[in-house]
Amino acid sequence: MNLIQKAIKAAKDKVLLKYHRVAARMYLKRATYVADQVIYTRFKVPTQALRVLREKANEHAQKAYAIRKGV
Predict the structure, then answer these.
(1) Hey, CA dihedral for 47, 52, 55, 57, is it positive or negative?
(2) Cα(22)–Cα(57) distance, rounded to whole angstroms?
């Protein structure tokens, strides 16, 4: 029984790790895209929007790190 629970937890952690890595990467890509588009069209830097997107990317990166380290 304990072996089955460990296997389920390992599979779940693997899926969550992949999810958080992909989410962090997508938020960073979106931040880059938003910055490029806003600077190109409005000639100003969208600092508030970039901060929010980068914070979300950082949250996902920290969660992925915690899963990887087993915290």
Answers:
(1) negative
(2) 10
